[in-house]
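Appendix B. Raw example, untouched.
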Amino acid sequence: MSNPSPSAPASPVVLDVWCELQCPDCTTALGDLAALRARYGDLLDIRLRHFPLEKHKYAYDAAQAVEEAYEQGKGWAYVEAVLGRTEELGERGQQLLLEVAGELGLDAEEFDTALIDGRHLLIVDADQAEGKAIKVTGTPTYEIGGELLDGSKDQTGLRTRIEEIADRLLADRSAPQQGPSA
């Protein structure tokens, strides 16, 4: 049996982003997420978590559509495209979700079918239930290293705080582990 190399890459730090695609504040957060991706690359696993808000009529459909986009291999591109058009989503709903799918070269008919048959409902419902369980109340909300950071009211300083936590967690993971002394 071989021991892992001391230079083996650290496992990525997970950043859960509780988001909904009709939320203007989530659109604002895209810049921070892009900067975090650029800084950390594969060392930070940014995971979109669904938290559709009741006040947004098409948020639940959009969450299901995102899951279909992931199934078809372009989840994050779809998230960015729809978040760039939140106001239009509020006006056009499912029509816009299908249009964006087509613009990205995805199978829009399969999107339509997925929205009708509800094949992604369990994922969306599970995310929302987990969010409620950990006290997510608005979007975007971030969870990293067990710490919840609410960006639904003010995002000032959140990226810096996420970086501080990620840096600490990555340093902890890459530090040599001391075994018990004999």
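End of appendix B.
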